[in-house]
Amino acid sequence: MTPPSHHDSTPQLLNRVRMRQVALMLAIEETRTLRAASGRVGLTQPAATKMLHELENAMGQLLFDRVGRGLQVNTAGARVMDYFRSIRGSMESLNRDLRELREGTAGKLSVGSIMAASPGRLTDALLQLKSTYPLLSIDITVDTSDRLLKLLDEGTLDLVIGRMVRDIALECNFRPIEDERLAVVVSPEHPLAERKKVEFSELMPYPWILQPRGSPMRDVIEREFREHHLKLPDGLIETGSILTTIDMVRRSRCVGVVPETVAVSERAVLSTVGYRMRQKLETYGSLVPKDRPMSKPGMHFLELLHEERSA
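Below the sequence we write its predicted structure tokens.
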């Protein structure tokens, strides 16, 4: 393998890397074998092997370790894969924009949001946006920050309202919106519902509903348990859906944890327990990929979203 010159520039690398090589790398990641990946991109296996060698020569280092007859991505390959996934996301956004131009539509904006922003801030910004762009198609996905950022990385979403997550390699511009406190909630008929002050240990006899491991809210709740020197209760119910959490808490003796804004908006069916969480979530905000252009409606939406902070 010929190492790249120290004088190699970005234009030279762009000339040497082909889109089909990008597609092959992404196919290897998905199928785990060169044989299956070559079929997916319409190549024979020898042609795919040659293309992979050419890509490694362009990069100046091996991207996979050869393990038996298979391939195992190494550190350099994993880093290249991060950037190639970003390229795929950009191409998906471009394809969507071009399709809208061909069809003469008013365009589409895909937004991902954590539940905390939904009751007021997100809704207000979207309603104002629709008054300016009445024919704009808007798609809203509500989920945890970690899942939303994966969709953003894949190009499914244009922007996210959430938090940065450590394990996501996507590079984003982050603009803070506000802090978020959490509330412990139960049904209005729960034995702890009418208590003005509740000790954390008094919550332990009841089943808990928590967000999945790895989400920012789950990390905060686990820190709360550790501060009280308690382990997570057995028999957890785990869901990333706030609506499922609300419905299960409402109809059972389960204990749930939701953003305070959600607890306030759902006070007709939920009761906030008299326990104040010591931990709070990090500031959430808007997240936009650094290497992906934003549409005019998208930029206007961001302006509206952040105007609300001073309102």
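The chain is about 45% helix and 20% strand.
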